[in-house]
Amino acid sequence: MDDLLVEYKNLLARIDGWFDRSLAAAAPGQIACARGCSACCRGLFDITLLDALLLQQGLGTLPEKVRKASLEKSRHRLDELRGRWPGFAAPYLLNAMPDEEWTEMPEDDETPCPLLGADGACLVYPWRPMTCRLHGLPNIDLSGESFSDEWCTKNFPGVDPLAMPELRWEFRRSFEEEILLFRTFAARLLGAPVNELDTFIPTALLIDFGGIDWKIENLCQQDTLAPG
């Protein structure tokens, strides 16, 4: 999967470039999001299985003590989730559950991400998922199509970023590229090109990619997913 991870990281680097250009285009003080800010790194975020593999790559670069601490926090989070969903088991995919079960998580959940350091900084910043890079700014395509018209309340005080054409970017093209990469990833992992396999950030760190029988027929028997 190394070649796919390289392609995916190249895509994420282009997203970072969009963010950096947006930061430069905005007036000083309009965008609070930056490396070291962890205001939104709370609760549960769903990410793709490709992001999960990338996170594990980043986790592997951490000192053993730090890595173990993050994994312990993730195991504690998993225990909490199993209290809500007793059948939630490896590989911790969300696709079998009704959307309302996992897309409407409590908004007042202030549990820090297990990958936050004691100083509040992300321990695996270069490997963070796509959603972490897109969060905080509206995602408006060059064509004007809106993929997200929301933004962090700490950003753009007294300003409407939706009226700033300089923040627009090639989101549709990039998301289509992400889907193609993910389908290739899924085809190699499962033997079938599915469109979506999601998990949470804490459970992403606990997936044993090498110890799971990823054959799609086995997962479908567990009502985990269906080919897309």
Our Rg estimate from Cα atoms comes to 18 Å
- Kindly state the mean pLDDT as a whole number? 87
What does the main sheet amount to? 2 strands, antiparallel
Enumerate the strands of the largest sheet in spatial order, edge to edge or round the barrel: 1-4
Give the ordered list of helices and strands: HEHHHHEEHEHH
What class do helices, strands and sheet pairing give?
A: mainly alpha
Low-confidence stretches: 221-228
User: Percent range for helical residues?
Assistant: 40-55%
The CA-CA distance between the termini, in Å, is 21 Å
Strand content: under 5%
Tell me the total number of β-strands: 4
Total individual domains: 1
Shape: globular
Helical region count? 8
Structure description:
With 228 residues, the chain is mainly alpha-helical. Helices cover 42% and strands 5% of the residues. The protein has one domain (2-221). It has eight helices and four strands, in the order H-E-H-H-H-H-E-E-H-E-H-H. A two-stranded antiparallel ribbon has the order 1-4. The protein has a two-stranded antiparallel sheet with strand order 2-3. The longest helix has 24 residues, at 2-25.
